[in-house]
Design goal:
2 strands, DUF4129 domain-containing protein, Four Helix Bundle (Hemerythrin (Met), subunit A), mainly alpha
């Protein structure tokens, strides 16, 4: 009797628990609840992952195209050449990022003074002063325009504190055909700006001609002409 009662009690408990194998709907619900947990969501591929996978699959399919008559290899070579051409064209059109950053953010200081004007703006201001016979200012502004123009082109780097003659020597390495003229322009700037010698129409004309010469000349190496302090 005791064994019979024990077996009956176990059957009652199992009936309360329910079947050990869930039905189809119950199993689907349990699986959906489990997959909804954050740990499974974090394992899902991101948008970047999907894009990278799609690009990789595109190139994989591109080079696996089967063409009759030996055209498959030729197609792959042509596709590779087109990709290389597109990369070269992008560099030609947009240039190097470093050069773009330099042109977009010229240094605020120029020969120890704050100067935010562009080379073209300085040239216009120099011409305006020259039209009024203010030769001192015209000479100084035109040499600053020359220096700013060289910096904007990325031909010379000018750290804070660089002197005009240090700049002229560095610019002479970038523009060797105008090295002598650049040194003469730096001397004219020094004479008027620091030695207080009077500017003249002839001195302004010479500095302007040197500026025009440099503008029309291509630098030899735009990356090597650093200015020592």
């Amino acid at each position: 009797m005791g064994l019979t009662a024990t077996v009956a009690g176990l059957r009652t408990r199992l009936a309360d628990v329910g079947p050990l194998t869930p039905s189809g709907d119950e199993a689907r619900r349990l699986a959906e609840n489990e997959l909804a947990k954050p740990v499974y969501q974090a394992a899902e591929p991101t948008v970047i992952d999907r894009i990278a996978r799609a690009v990789g699959q595109f190139f994989e399919r591109l080079f696996q195209v089967e063409l009759g008559g030996g055209w498959g290899s030729a197609f792959a070579i042509v596709a590779t050449i087109l990709v290389v051409i597109l990369i070269v064209v992008a560099f030609i059109v947009w240039g190097r990022p470093r050069a773009v950053r330099r042109a977009a953010a010229p240094p605020a200081a120029l020969f120890g003074e704050t100067e935010s004007r562009s080379a073209d703006e300085l040239r216009r201001d120099a011409a305006s002063r020259a039209s009024m016979g203010e030769w001192d200012a015209a000479v100084v502004l035109r040499f600053r325009a020359l220096a700013r123009g060289v910096i904007e082109r990325g031909a010379v780097d000018t750290p804070p504190g660089a002197t005009v003659h240090a700049f002229a020597r560095a610019a002479g390495r970038a523009f060797p055909s105008a090295a002598v003229e650049l040194e003469a322009a730096a001397t004219a700037f020094d004479d008027v700006r620091y030695l207080r010698r009077p500017g003249t129409a002839e001195l302004y004309r010479r500095v302007a001609e040197i500026d025009d010469l440099v503008v029309a000349t291509r630098p030899v190496d735009a990356d090597s002409a650093g200015v020592p302090v």
